[in-house]
Amino acid sequence: MKATLTTCPYCGTGCNFYLLSDAAGQLTGIEPAGKHSASRGQLCLKGWNAHAFVHHSDRLTSPLIKQNGKFHPCDWDSALTTIHQRLKQIANSYGPDSLMFFSSAKVSNEENYLLMKLARAGFGTNNIDHCARLCHSSTVTGLVETLGSGAMTNSLSCFDATDLVFVIGSNTTEQHPLIGSRILLAQQRGTKLIVADSRKIRLTEHADLHLRHQNGSDVALINGMMRQILLDGMENREFIAQRTENIEALRQSLVPFSPEYVARITGLEDQQIITAARAYAQARSAMIVYAMGITQHSHGVDNVRALSNLALLTGNLGRPGTGINPLRGQNNVQGACDMGALPDVYSGYQKVADTKSRLKFSQAWEKALPENPGMMATQAIEAAAAGKIRGMLILGENPMLSEANQTLVKQALNNLDFLAVIDIFPTETAQFADLVLPAACYAERDGTFTSTERRVQRGRKGIDPPGQAWPDWQILCALLQRCGIKADYNSPADVMDEIAKLTPSYAGIDYTRLENGEGLQWPCPDSQHPGTPILHREQCTRGKGHFSPTNYRPPKELPDATYPLLLSTGRTAVHWHTGSMTRRSHLLDREEPGAFAEINPEDARSLNIRERQRINVSSRRGEIQVKAKLTDRVPPGQVFIPFHFAKGAANVLTNNALDPESGIPEFKVCAVRVTPC
Amino acid sequence: MLKQLNQQDLFRLLEQLAISFQLLVPQTLVDGTRGLLPWNGSQTSMSGEPLQRKPTALFFPQTDHLVHLGSDGMAATPAGSDKPLALCGLNREDLAGIAFIDRFFAAQPADDIYLKKRTAALIIGLTGYVGREQQFQPLAEGQCDFELIADQQHWLAVAYTESGKHWLADYPDGPEDVLQLLRETSRGIASQHEQAVKRASRLLQAEQVPDSFWEEISARCIRCGGCNFACPTCTCFCVQDRKTINGIERSRIWDSCQLDAFMREASGHNPMGTELLRTRRRIHHKLVDDPQRWGETGCILCGRCDRACPTGIGMFAICDEIVSRFDR
Ligand code: SF4
Ligand code: SF4
Ligand code: SF4
Question: What one-character DSSP code corresponds to residue B12?
Fold first, then answer.
């Protein structure tokens, strides 16, 4: 009987719990950590069931090689040698940039670091990216430009001390339940709550103001609010004068966004926009909370810029209970970005194009490094479909279900000369692989994860991996060694030591410090530094906060006569992304066993659709069948489909129109047609 | 039988128990909470906050393997551990929790999987000056094999069963007058939560709480299941069948009545299809149905659901709210 404290493998809230295991090395349950600052003795349903998929019989237990279309078990040595040789051959024949490496927000910091080292030093390409491309790439671009750092500015504890929370594009109680609950508790204590969301999510029932604006009209709404704030003279002049630049350009850009104009675009009442603006500006401290509803648009970066402008305009930055708080979806999506599993930066956002940085990494790794930024994950899919990417290594990701426009993804994966997948389950993507390697899951390996509040915390091994599965870091070390790169780490702690040496924001982080504490919030520049709960305190990371004017651009594909409904996609409370873990967890799968579409009863009536009836939903890219769920959670004219399900996969329908700067697809808006089956 | 033990005696007793039992004692976990873990011969945390995990989980675990059906048609039950459990360190509420579910699992048809583990086990209460910062914890005065009561210097040990008497036989007799004093201290402690829960129970039985109240409360439920998973008197489970390499393994796993699928019919229709109905039912079960069936509420006042509920609608919070709004 054993209790191992570890970090939840699901969302970015960073809850900690004990993995309970018996003498036979089987997990028997989960107990929340009573005194941990994020979990406080509480978990959401996924957390309480985080042990449930671990012993599922679908777990991969041996390397598998595909011969004549069928997978056969093989030994580790030949599997690793094959991967190395095939990728090298492709690099030799077509250049290193014909390779693509997909890292994962589900693996540790150490593993992300090792994979980016493998791509860059081992195979000589900056073509490395991960699923942040699909969730918060817009945040990184938008916030780095305006503030200098792409992370959540404040901490979870700030929800306990704020006057107003403005939630836009985040279904917090379902996607970050233990942050959603803090918002509900704050609201009970008298904190004002404004929620901008086209769906009637749980938070809207408690909101002082629910802005049900048209999907994709966020820039107009926020610009309208800012114009009103300036008109009322409610901007924070002192903050603007001392800590920001470019206010005049912003002021000019806001002129057209009168309440009437904004009301026309957003579908709101004039007065709602004015009320929201005044409430936000008048609060002594106000937090902006957002997630995919802001980022997953073809103008996602503009949405983020607009929010950043709003916070700067009112001086809601650098103090407790304020800030711009993008909620990170996966337990290590912050860390995967921090570790440089991105095409343009090494760990700590040090640019590959910057000679000094490149030299530093090149000396540490004893290898010349490529200088051109690599390809984004979304572009790589397009490039593979076009035959320009020929070899791929995918670590713990399932693009078949997670990327927009599944038909294109299928074509891309089919087109590859060689695909290797490292995962814990035979995912939809693994079916396309030439070689599949079995990995240890979160409960079976050590490492660190960085939560949405930049808190670096330990994941701990509770039990042994099944069969011959290996921890990802060991797989990556073996591949590095085959590439002739030194990788003689004894444990992830050694990898963290190397990360700390090369990454200023992680310089003070080591396993000894993490052993007893709760984790450290970066930047943590030296071994005495206590970590940084609130960013941009005295000045912004980039110096002055930069107002970056934005203009309203509609989504790329809006409903029309042929495809008359607007489709928005997302997640539900009980499932996790492509479902490879939650759909193998009994209580979670029982709660939502199949794909469905939320549709407004008005639309259902006119389409002759009844509750739980099967319907066809089609877009310009494909068609799926799902069950109808009649609910006024969605407004008339809109349907919502979660993307967790392989049967009824929402991403067959979605539009791979990318934001030109961040490369994020427009998961939140496309046009569909619904007919009864 | 009343005995008195000093610290050395206590260790000797634990050592003896560890020979015959798999002995679990309270220990401080990494995050500072206390939990029951196998005794390693030295570490114990005999005083502090209540145990984080409900001790009933040791007899009715979150995942409980029931049977393996081999592809050869043979059924095999999992080999139990070679030693029965001895749980040391349960407070009055934890003991009440075990007693509550004992009655449930023993009722016909008896649940032999539970009873097998439970009847072989030894249960040791721990009360007196063992709370946070040595605060006084009310005595159990039963519901265990023996109870260790910390006075300011010693451990008094009171046996309630033959097995309890057997294990304490070697130790010197304890002072009756000290025990008497501790009993009086214990009875003098008024539990504010107990009063609220009892009053709320009466109001619910008298149908004094309208649905509008439940609508308001349940609008704060985020469907985490924590209130059920944390509660020592919650016994609902569902059955999970899983493929193994050579057959199928059947387990029972903790269920939660706050979940939509808990009562959902195969057709998809759900007679408990809203959070309002489910939240009301959870509280009604414990405060209306249980008193009718067992003569006492199904809440043994441990406070765990209030700690586990992320949005502040655990049993105590709800009862306080009911009493303040509807008790005239
Ligand atoms: S809120 Fe997030 S981190 Fe916490 S238990 Fe749920 S999924 Fe895990
Ligand atoms: S306080 Fe809550 S957890 Fe404890 S017995 Fe009562 S209902 Fe159950
Ligand atoms: S613990 Fe609270 S939020 Fe969770 S299911 Fe129970 S009542 Fe709902």
Answer: H
